[in-house]
Amino acid sequence: MSIQNINVALIGNPNTGKTSVFNQLTGLNQQVGNYPGITVEKKIGFCKFPHNIKANILDLPGTYSLNASSMDESVVIELLLNKNDKLYPDVAVVVTDVENLKRNLLIYTQIKDLEIPTILVINMSDRMKSKGITLDIPYLEEHLKTKIALVSSRKGLGIEELKNLIISYRTLPNEACLDMSSIDKAYFKNLKEAFPNQLLYKLWLVITQDVNFSNLDRNELRSTFTKSHSELKRLQQKETIKRYQFINEVLKGGLQVDASMANDVRAKLDRVLTHKVWGYVIFFAILFIIFQSIFSWSTIPMDFIDSTFASLSSWVGAELPSGILTDLLSQGIIPGIGGILIFIPQIAFLFLFISILEESGYMSRVVFLMDKIMRKFGLSGKSVVPLISGTACAIPAIMATRNIENWKERLITILVTPFTTCSARLPVYAIIIALVIPNERIFGILNMQGLSLMLLYLLGFTAAILSAYILNKILKLDSKTYFVVEMPSYKLPLFKNVAINVVEKTKAFVMGAGKIILAISVILWFLASYGPGRDFNEAEKIVKERNSYKPLTEIEFENAVASQKIENSYIGIMGKAIEPAISPLGYDWKIGIAIISSFAAREVFVGTLATIYSVGNSDNEATIKSKMQEEINPETGHKIFNFASGISLLLFYAFALQCASTLAITKKETNSWKWPAMQLVFMSGLAYFVALFAYQILK
Fold first, then answer.
1. Numbered residues of the known binding site for GTP
2. For a 10 Å CB count at each end of the chain, is N or C smaller?
3. Belongs to which family (predicted)?
């Protein structure tokens, strides 16, 4: 017997538990990607049913209605309009929340009017008793002209009933909820006569929404049945009123609420968590705990991954026959894979906390709380979490922008998030501050080095906010701003949802940005491992000739050869080539090499300088620091790392986008190289000029 494939679309308002229903149906059998050419996330799961039926279950973006105000909603409308789309649903499953049925049913009535077989899911049935809610399911089924599954996605109740309804979708009633001609008889009569083979509601959506319908010439339809913007809005409002009149009439007979049985815990919590003072205090306290935990908990697995791949690299280099392939594996591919996997603990922990906050209902309160402040800078309340997440790592922070519906606000957040001081900058800051800032105390309390570090963090966040303000003025992108945030009920996070979210987000990073990071790591290995001419290829001979009068120990000889090779490698030549451009900043060619190398990851800066200054592979800070302190500019006779050059370097790394993986994830999230290229040019240019200004003033 052949397998029958059906497409099932899960549709509903945000926070109705739609994704929980999706997870109950599919488990980890999911694929996450983007719709072609746009940044809206597409999530498809697979589920096997009895009778050889396999369902492709599409979790559509949360939407309040088919009157589109965001890219997410436009995606939903275009899919439901075009039967030629390979994902066009055979059956639509509209998920609603038992506490918000009136609002949730608006989109249900719209989808019914598209004459798609539709099942109504009333979720969170386990809360009915505590809220004093009683439903007359047969009455609701009769008047809403559908079949209803009463489920609790948290407890897995009603899921089997839902599966049975999906299997028998062909038997569902196929009737519209609203007679469109009741809105304007003459207008819709003419519309029907002009297009007798099309549904009136589909025609109406094409006229009023910025969506495509493959069966029609949209321009011809709009030009023939055009109305003024205000007139169309008036008719849309009339349509919405009629839909709510229908919904109210149905719920009057099918829904009863005994207010005396409902508790008011939610209102009491909201008064505290959204308070104009205590709300902020609680939010920042939670963030402090979260990021302290991220730094503390991720250190152990990150160190384990780092040491494991370092040991593996050393083992491969020692055990395999010497040659290009061994060098590529031990110095390029293995460190490259390690550079991908080392981010996983931070990503996993960050999304663990974000998922818990979202599942509990608290994240919506944070968004509401911060929106008024952030909107002044061209951002939204939803930009707060990515910006603060950037203190751990810009990669998961940029991934966290996916919950920002407005494309312009999301794009600006993505572009400015790398300004936030991440943990990768800390090794650079630590050694430069130790070199150029005195280890003294102000007023006997404030440590100058610690104060400098704190100021660098504040500088990064200030740069992000000001850049957002500038970008908001410069970027001319069409985007509608409707700040609608759902205030869901508080609930204990569902472990299954949290676990699936963490796994999917982590997998998306490894499979997406990881490929690009690995490729760049291999390129950097090649540039540092090879070079033209005698100065590179005969490094050992040159070192012996140079030190013939003073025999070197074996370790000194190996370090001197490594220094000779890296100076004359391709990446060393690049460092020499950019020296005229960076010398006004107080840098020499060696710092230039470290800057180029650290493009793979900022923390590479310290290791590169360690090699250049003949410290071998040791990352012992004191040893590196002593060598750096002794480094003299042969032309001026002054120390390379003085107060002026040190401050210049700190400011350069505060602003520069020295992170290939950040560019990779920006490309993935924007589906274009245009935005990461602009991000790189803007941040690098700003870093250069700020560092130049600082050095020239301070020297």
1. 12-19, 37-41, 59-62, 123-126
2. N
3. Belongs to the TRAFAC class TrmE-Era-EngA-EngB-Septin-like GTPase superfamily. FeoB GTPase (TC 9.A.8) family.
